[in-house]
Amino acid sequence: MKYKPVAADGHHHDHHHHEHDHVVVNTATGDLHYGQGEACVSIPGVSQSRTIRLEQDVLGKNNQFAARNREHFIHHRIFALNLVSSPGSGKTTLLCETIEALKRRGSMVPVGVIEGDQQTSHDADRIRATGAPAIQVNTGKGCHLDAQMVGNAFSRLPLHGHAHGAGHHHGQEGGQGGILFIENVGNLVCPAMWDLGEAAKVAILSVTEGEDKPLKYPDMFAAASLMILNKVDLLPYLRFDVQKCIDFARRVNPRIQVLQLSATSGQGMDVWLDWILDGHRGLAAQGEQAA
Ligand SMILES: Nc1nc2c(ncn2[C@@H]2O[C@H](COP(=O)(O)OP(=O)(O)OP(=O)(O)O)[C@@H](O)[C@H]2O)c(=O)[nH]1
Ligand SMILES: [Mg+2]
């Protein structure tokens, strides 16, 4: 193995390093690896053990909120999907087209959308134009949605009222429930580790991004139940090897499901709608078993 952990402060020729520079140097190429410490991440001046403690504090609190959301969603038969991707992969376009396609199918299942972005309410406005209710969450400097934000936004959606207004007979607490789409902040890194209480993460990768993305951003694809390969209408103009991309995704997550889709041409939309509606029906079946 060429990789060799280097106690960086032991290197007299590099004055920038100090005791907490947890870097692993490939002595042959000079490549640097900052993710091989216990914390899998490096913060300047902070030890690995302190980094782990900080992360546990922050994520532990988030996980409590996420557990509360998840319990609430399951109880009320809300099928919650967390859509994650890099900026511009087509999340909002897909959501608008999905809402329209559900209407055309005559689906009576109520839908709600939470839109995460650093700034602007553009995406919530696009969703509202379809007639579906949406709450925009602006994260400011934040690079992801967290479970508390989602709980807060959900309580402002009519879906929440549906859930509580519906018949309160045994096994009927959620009535017909609903589908909650959460569009996360466009970012293939940070949203991977923040549980929102969703039933599934859906990673959207557009074919213009290159087939290697599942290997470069493995956490996101490992966390996702489904990968949607979007913009397949553009394949004739690109060098993108679909099979290679799927192989890469399966390498980081052997159980990941894959759908090829074009939000703009409508190709693959039917299979996607089936996937959503099956997921929602599956929740109802779970609820009946539990009742
Ligand atoms: N050709 C093609 N273009 C698409 C498709 N889906 C989305 N687009 C285009 O991709 C661009 C970005 O789409 P958005 O839906 O805004 O992407 P997004 O993921 O919501 O972006 P952020 O919210 O900023 O992260 C727009 O110009 C869309 O028209 C598709 O299936 N095919
Ligand atoms: Mg968007």
Q: Can you characterise this structure?
A:
With 291 residues, this protein is an alpha/beta fold. The chain has one domain (73-290): P-loop containing nucleotide triphosphate hydrolases (Rossmann fold, 3-Layer(aba) Sandwich). It has 9 helices and 10 strands. It has helices at residues 48-75, 91-104, 122-128, 147-154, 158-165, 213-216, 218-223, 242-252, 269-290; strands spanning 3-5, 24-26, 32-33, 78-84, 111-117, 134-138, 178-183, 200-206, 226-230, 257-260. The strands form 2 sheets. Strands 6-5-7-4-8-9-10 form a 7-stranded parallel beta sheet, with helices on both faces. A hairpin with a 5-residue loop joins strand 2 (24-26) and strand 3 (32-33). Mean pLDDT is 90; it is low at 7-15 and 166-174. The structure holds guanosine-5'-triphosphate and magnesium ion. Magnesium ion is lined by residues 91-92, 123, 183. Guanosine-5'-triphosphate binds at residues 85, 87-93, 123, 186, 230-231, 233-234, 262-264.
The CATH topology assignment is Rossmann fold
Shape type: globular
**What is the terminal-to-terminal distance?**
56 Å
The overall average pLDDT, rounded, is: 90
Bound molecules: guanosine-5'-triphosphate, magnesium ion
Instruction: Write down the Rg.
Output: 21 Å
Secondary-structure element order, N to C: EEEHEHEHEHHEEHHEHEH
Number of domains: 1
| CATH architecture descriptor text | 3-Layer(aba) Sandwich
Strand order of the largest sheet: 6-5-7-4-8-9-10
Keywords: GTP-binding, Hydrolase, Metal-binding, Nickel, Nucleotide-binding, Zinc
Family: Belongs to the SIMIBI class G3E GTPase family. HypB/HupM subfamily.
Organism: Noviherbaspirillum denitrificans
InterPro entries: CobW/HypB/UreG_nucleotide-bd, Hyd_mat_HypB, P-loop_NTPase
